[in-house]
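Subject: sequence -> structure tokens, single chain

Hey, anyone have a minute? Need the predicted structure for the following. Not urgent.
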Amino acid sequence: FKGGDTCEYLLSSGRFLGEKVWQPHSCMMHKYKNSEAKNCLIDKHVVFIGDSRIRQLFYSFIKLINPQVKEEGIKHGNIPFEDKSASIKVDFLWYPEVNGSMRQRIKSWTESSVAKPHIIVVGAATWSIKIHNGSNEALAQYKINITSIAPLLEKLAISSDVYWVLQDPVYEDMLSESRKMITNEKIDAYNEAAVRILNSSSRNSKAKVKVFSVSKLIAQETIMKSVDGLHLPESSRDTNAMILMNVYCNKIMKPIDGSCCQPQPPLTLIQKIAFCFFTLSIIGYLIISLIHRNNYRKNKSCTDLESGEEKKPAISTPNVSTLEMLLHCFCKLGLIMTYFYLCDRANLFMKENKFYTHSSFFIPIVYILVLGVFYTENTKETKVLNREQTDEWKGWMQLVILIYHISGASTFLPVYMHIRVLVAAYLFQTGYGHFSYFWIKGDFGVYRVCQVLFRLNFLVVVLCIVMDRPYQFYYFVPLVTVWFMIIYATLAVWPQIVQKKANGNCLWHFGLLLKLICLLTCIYFLSYSQGAFEKIFSFWPLSKCFELNGNVYEWWFRWKLDRYVVFHGMLFAFIYLALQKHQMISEGKGDPLFSNRVSNVLLFISIVSFLTYSIWASSCKNKTECNELHPSVSVVQILAFILIRNIPGYVRSVYSSFFAWFGKISLELFICQYHIWLAADTKGILVLIPGYPMFNVLVSTFIFVCVAHEISQITNDLAQIVVPKDNSTLLKRLLCIAGFFSGLHFFSAMQDQSRH
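Reply:
Had a minute. Here:
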């Protein structure tokens, strides 16, 4: 931990991830849109003072506000720009030399009666080198002039943001004869003088002129592409303008993916309460552990001298045991949540932007595929979608999704479309799994519902409190939670139709199909009636759960994207269980699912369908159009995969224990990645070890997987305590949970009021 201000890193250091992607050291840079730039600079006055290079930076800066601007101003004169819609004024003032004229202009702003610019960007030197033929006398005069200007700039820096742009290197081989005297050696001398003199007299840390030296690093990589050897190519000056925008606007706009120059967010009231709770849990657990250890020593087995038998120590009461287990879970969870907070809320660890390359996505995919195939074992049962197989399916899908997120592959449309199928496949399993349970077991009790809801939502609720994020932010958990409740409501509502009842009378099968048709009709109606959908989820308390940024549009978009796949999972489960009941499929070890002829035909159709979908997804040109088709066609590849995986008897009889292990903690992996593997709420990458990208990924991944596994165990342990099987005890616990959420809502309302 080096400490320091991330603004200093942004202004002074970084590297190129690709040809045009600049990565500042230790922090993330936001790419500002025109609307965001206007909102940040509303009612602001920005001034650029200097030579032709500063003029270039001026044009790149105003293009962030208005991309239609053309570089048509007077070359050796002042150029004004104004955006009346946002009351933004940006001026370029032609002062190619650091001399008396520049000093006089800067001095005029220090007068108390004159309105000062909010941002001042200054820089000049190459003209002094050119006019005076690179003489030492010119350098000496430059030092004198900048010494006289420095106190004025420092005075302005008290109330304005003042930046001194160091001179970029030149490409000497490309310079014209009239510019041959501008050498990199001379430029370095002028830069050294500026850095040494600026801020030398300042005693106030707030009154510092910010030295914009990062443009030198950018120019070193790109000046070869210059048209004249002196002026930067357009992409490089655009990067400089974006850096300037991040330095000023990040602290105002607070973009999630712009960690540079952002102060650490203050602790909220709920976060403080959570911190106190976890601290008390740790203290309580330590006290109970010490008491138990002391009791154990007192009641330690001792040899009975007469009989020679050992006396067993007294057994602790169940209540103490439950309390100790509860405190132990919260103790571990408190330490884990501290790590979450330090990784993604405190400015302790570095964060970097994602950068996609084909190799960064496909090489890890091949690697985990080889590992998965290597760890192959026989399944305990050979049924279609047995437990080991579904865990394996969840596991490899989760690993692919993780690689997709960390590599930034969402920018590559074919990969994005295939990942959408994997997310749909998770929801397909939700429909298949819960329908199968309710259909076979007929268990619609409160205990089952509470167990599922607790296991799905426990981690997310804790993260909402600790990380100060809305419930809808972790969109996948609200999605599977709502679909679980829809499945439950569909099957539990009168008349309750389960397999046992349907076996007695075949007409009940038609009754269930009628229920499924009603469900499909409701889904179809809501997907094409955004207004009705938003009205349903805008009612309190649903609005508290499903709003993001003040509306439920994001929730509607996420729900609509995979609206049919849960229904498809339920329908598949119904058909499969009906075929199984009537012994129309063979699930023996090594046996094909159907007769050889039927199996071969279905296998051929499945492979063709699978490849056809992949070809279609790979040929997608427009994300919006492909997303419109996705809900209807994603089931094709899902069903094709299920048949390919289950029709051949041998393939159905084996599974990858490597993938299955990850599948058991897939939900925790998906949620934990937001903050302790990725960073800035998934927008960037967490950097624990700077300078060694591969080693950093290995270390952060190891910690991330261990934490996910530990949280899975904590959730399972707490589920046994919080959701007991005894109905009267369960009712008391539910009342306690209701009280907890009421208190959470009360403190949340207090928080919102204090923010406003």
